[in-house]
Give the backbone structure.
Amino acid sequence: MSAISYNRKAEPDDTRVKREFHIKFRKQIKMEPKATREGYGDALVEIGGKNPNVVVVDADLGDSTKAESFGKQFPDRYITAGIAEQDMIGIAAGLSVSGKIPFASTFAVFSERAFEFVRNIVSRNNFNVKIAGSHAGIFTGEDGKSAQSIEDISIYRTLPHMVVIQPCDYIETKKAVHVLADYNGASYMRLLRNPLPIIHEDNYKFEIGKGEILKKGKDAVIFATGTMVHESLKAYDLLKKDRIDICVVNIHTIKPIDKKLIIDLAKKTNCVITAEDHNIIGGLGSAVAEVLSENYPCIIKRIGMEDRYGESGKYDELYDKYGLSAKHIAEKVKRAIKKKK
Amino acid sequence: MSKNRIMKIKDFQDTENLRFSRVSELKKIANEIRKESLIMIHRVQSGHPGGSLSEADILAALYFYKLRIDSKKPHWEDRDRFVLSKGHASPAYYAALAMKGFFPKKELETFRKINSRLQGHPELKVSGVDFAGGSLGQGVCFANGLALAGKLDNKEYKIYVLIGDGESQEGAVWEAAMAAAHHKLDNLVVILDKNQVQETGKTKNVMNIDPAPDKWKAFGFHVFDIDGHNMEEIVNTLDKADNVKEKPVMIVANTIKGKGVSFMELNHKFHGKAPNDEQFKQAMEELRKIDEKLK
């Protein structure tokens, strides 16, 4: 159809409606929030199709972790361990030394039941086992504190050889799964229950250990991970209104952490904030503090669960109650900036 | 008698003679394993004699009769795998591996010493080791993974796991048992070194695991209940295990902790304590006497 001859007004009504709807709908599909656990499930199917050695081990939570998507496509390679997380990890380890590429997933908090198996079999031998812990953080909401892991990042971080990743959106998760499938070694990936905005493009390149600068600014820097990336981006907008210009960084790899980036931005801003849906003890905040205390000591404000458990509730209400929402982040950033030397 | 029948009887006698000499060879090897275990433990004054002595016969039968392995090719893809889940009983294991030729016997002198390959509990860097033990209950779970991979790839190799009776107090052992039966892992043979004693006392008093054969049967295993120091029985049972289909196998080997050394037998104090010079001397005397008897 040439631009000259095509007359939109002459278009039959239903075609016009369909065209406009299609354009609007396409935009919506692109922007529609999706949970990172969906990214896990979808990516497993992709890598499963590419590599016949990929196997998945499940501890009766495949429908929640979305590992089940793999199970539907490749039932022979989907191993049900039952509600037996220690056996799940042992099985994954045995598979990994037998030429298989195993992904083992459950709720983050229940993976902790098998922590010593992860420590003594997977980490100790640096086996090629990819562990995924879903429904992490108080973001999990209504299930309540027993299901909300706020300590997983800290404990997996203490294991030698363990790569610890928390992707912040659906696309990043898919990319991470593809990268991990090719990575030879132990890893833990933290997944989240609810839909999150997609902030990465399809051509995003995920690199283990590389922090991602999302917003540039010199007044302060927030190193955020997971859901807190999104809350920090909202805080960025709030602070902009008060003429405060912050840097927002997505730390998707807590271990090995991007030391250089952290030191550089600490030097540039002299005001460091960390944000995570996790205890402020042992997680991202501690990891950043470890780097800076040895290289560029400065004031660090750690935002997260303040050594207390969450509870049942809607996640946005919980974030507000426990000081993790954008509004609270913005407040804490302002206070930290005041403390700047 | 027809010629054929005479031939058959002769074949039978030959096989029996072969088996008899085989069995007596294995008994000598087992005693050698016992001596080597005590030597290496005594040298560094550290290690687990009780459980090493109780498993010596089983290890001799596995490494010198049953396991399809090649010491020249420790990573041979189609090898049988052995998992020492009761990883603390490493001395006997190392002795068996050395005698089989996975590494020189002289290396046994480095047991538990700094910078040594022969760590207190087995590490994968030791040639012939397929599982890094030390934490009880983990070996069976790991073995499930090995067995599942074998099934996925339609392989013929078998997985043998050695667990302890104290170890079978660990819940993970039963998670693994349930899964092995559920997934019909008939390429898995679990052997229970039921030596009746654990670190703090008799198993019956600490945490009774009896009736063990019944439990494993209830979990879906094909169970053999044998004398873990009767070499003939061990060898026969390992052969019978080959023919079990659709179910994993459990061989309950009734043994004596510290077997072969009078003051160590059924004595929980020698679960994890080395013999002093005097005790060592006496122990080696007793084992040498057994050597004499086996000649």
